[in-house]
Amino acid sequence: MSDTGRESFTDKASAAIKPDSQKSTTEHFGDKMKGHGDSMASTLQPNSEKSGTQKMGDTFSSNSNHNDQSLLDKAKNAVGMGDKH
C-alpha cells in the first residue's frame, strides 16, 4: 500500500503495462502528470518517514531519494534555521 498523497502501486503498474499505442492523449498526459507529482512527493518526503512498502515501491520506480532530509529541511539548514547548522 502506498503512503498518503502518493500514487497507488496498482495505478503505476496499470499505466506501465498498457502499451502507449493503446493510450489516448488524455491518458498520456494523465500518466505524465501523476508520475511527476509522485516523483515530487517522493523527493519531498524524507526516507525516514516512508513506510517500508513505499520505500520498496520508490526503489522499483526509481523514485527513491537518497537522503533522510526533506527539501524543506535542507532549505532551512542552508539559511541557518534548521536543526543542523
Automatic annotation (TrEMBL):
Name assigned to this protein: Heat shock protein 9/12-domain-containing protein
Record bears the keyword Cytoplasm: no
Biased composition (Basic and acidic residues): 1-10, 25-37, 71-85
InterPro entries found in the cross-reference section: HSP9_HSP12
Organism of origin: Favolaschia claudopus
Biased composition (Polar residues): 40-70
Keyword set, alphabetical order: Stress response
Region (Disordered) location: 1-85
Domain of life: Eukaryota
